[in-house]
Design goal:
The protein is mainly beta and 797 residues long. Helix content is 5%, strand content 54%. The chain has four helices and 45 strands. The strands form five sheets. It has a 24-stranded antiparallel β-barrel. A hairpin with a 3-residue loop joins β4 and β5 (82-90).
Amino acid sequence: MSKLHSIAIFYLIFFSYTAYSQKKTLQAKSITENITIDGKINEEIWETASVATNFVMFEPDNGKPISNDKRTEVKVLYDNNAIYISALLYDNEPEKIQREITKRDVFGVSDHFSVYINGFNDGQQDFRFFVSAAGVQMDCLAIEDSEDFTWDAIWDSEVTVTEFGWVVEMKIPYAALRFSKADKQTWGLNFMREIKRDVQKYTWNRIDTKIGAVIPQAGILQGIESIQTPTRLFLIPYSSAYYQQSDIGSDTTLKAGLDIKYGINDSFTLDAILVPDFGQTKFDNAILNLEPFEQQLEENRPFFTEGTDLFNKGGLFYSRRIGGAPSTEPATAANEEITNYPSTVDLLNAVKISGRTEKGLGIGFLNAVTERTKATILNNDTGEVRKEVIEPLTNYNMLVLDQRFNQNSSVSFVNANTTRNGDFRDANASALLFDLNTKENTYNLYGDFKYSSINTVEDYDGFKTEIGFAKTSGKYRYGFSGKYVSENYDVNDLGINFYSNYHNAYANGSYRIVNPTKVFNTFKINQYINFEVDNTSKKLQTGAFGTEIKATTLQNDYLEFVVEFSPFKTFDFYEPREYGKYVFLPEKVFTAINFATNDNNPFTLVVQPSLSKFNENDRNVYGFYISPKYRFNDRLSIAYVLDYFNETNDRGWVDTDNTGIIFAERNRETAQNDFTGKYALNNRMTINLTARYYWSYSKNHQFFTLQNNGYLTPNNTYAQNKDRNFNSWNFDLSYSWWFAPGSEISILYRNYGLERASIVEKDLSKNLKSIFNSDLTNVLSISIRYFIDYNAVKNKF
């Protein structure tokens, strides 16, 4: 090789390394003229703006430059109200651009363009805005390894498909962002383009997948100077009407209320709800719960899902506690019965303040008040009716202080407080957390200390602590951690925690490819080991090691295989429902397979079989999940899910009587059927169908008494019927029209019913017939929400 060639190769390698290792910088251009968001980019000012180009593949072939026939060119303008983004996305086959129309925040089978903005350039949190080639908006708050799509901002976008590809134009008001008060702004910035048919993603500033953290690998946006941001005050009044018909009659309800969003400054926002209305939120999935723990429900109320990432730190906040079930049951005499016990407590009002200072201190405060709630009690001898308070006026508070530093590390303090009026139970829980990463995002040290205090008839407190270390970069990664949870650790007044009084050790090691091979586009294998020991008895409650393999093929089908061995005798300290008792669990092995076809195809299929084999009396659990979906065109799609489990010779608690704790050997079956459908009239108007039928039974065939050593002995005298048969039906048909930014009209028809019985019916058709012949409840509701920007109103008047 000649000396000239050697020098040329050296400079090429050096230039490539420098280009990929240094952050790219883009200059935003100040404007005074109006920009029309129409997806045409025909204002002359765009011609003078700097261009962000030379995108690099993020997945699957990390680091590969984008081809010239798919080049991408992005520009940024700004004024005192917003930043404006234009993107030319070239495509040599524009007729193949995927453009499925979905409802907001649903990606579907579409090409996408997105902008990631970090107003503090601290490598910690992005505000991400996505637009599909069909014009559908998606947005989220993102921290490392987590994207919160429940957060919705008010911004504008339009797209057009052209003969050379497609065009995006966006206007993102400063009200949708958070940034410092500095006269000269420096923001973290990245752009991402997804070419769906090729299952490829490209970014402007390269994201090296060998490095565990994504957000610190953003580029830089400069040039925004001396902006005078407007007042951030938004009012969202709403009005709703409900008509309900059931076996007890019909009823009509009218509601009206107001949500308020106020920007205290450019960093902090106040959100408040007055006279809340959650009547159109998604229904809860009722199940036959035979576990020793309550069912953990998904949060569907927008106030408690939007922008609550700060409050979720430390795991002390379970928002369904607020407005959930009452905390007590009334005391009754032998001749009394409860005739009305409200299942939930009404929320009176709620407010939250959240944001982050220029120096990286995140502050979150949430307060909610629920009303006094009573149960009705009937005296069967005298006919007298009395009422007793089962939940007093209750105040819930959350406070979070989260200090970020060095772009990728943080220390946090969290406090959760529940105060009930009168002599009812009060609770307080606090947590100190740390998450420390090396500058290169190579290693991570994390941990916490949590303390809980309960004030009731007998006060008690407890604590939990954990520390872990992990290598978070490269093809080979590993981690290990340990935790200790004390006997009386209890955060269940505003949080949710099932397990206490144990210590744990966990370790894992993994390998992954970062570029495609001749067989796989992506491949990862992870091996782990996990042990948990009860603090009091020193008995093992978990002892398992397993392997997880995840991969995508060159055809972009997804494969996953999991196998977990539990070769040790362990004990369950919760199933007996009595403190200090425990029950023996036999050795077992669990295995599962997950296969999903490429979702670019009109017909897609997900199949997930699983099997648990116990070392006990033909005790097994097998199940399968199957979900076919068909996309007829870009507007219409339907999907079905069958999630089935069969448990043979399962053993669980059924009763506690004067002879002791009674267990049963039982057979169980559970079948959940979900049907969903979507028809999009356009990218702001959709019709959606969600139907769910759930059936589960438990059939006991032998009873046992739990011994003090944790083992079961046959009980031939217990004869009560503890069989269970459970049916649940939900049907939602909704129409949604986003007729203006932040403003929506929605119409919902809901039909639902639930049946519980102690006689098991194993014929599925008879169960279906039974629930549809029962007295189903029908609800028709109409809701209108209108977004009012104070500045727009002020300018008009």
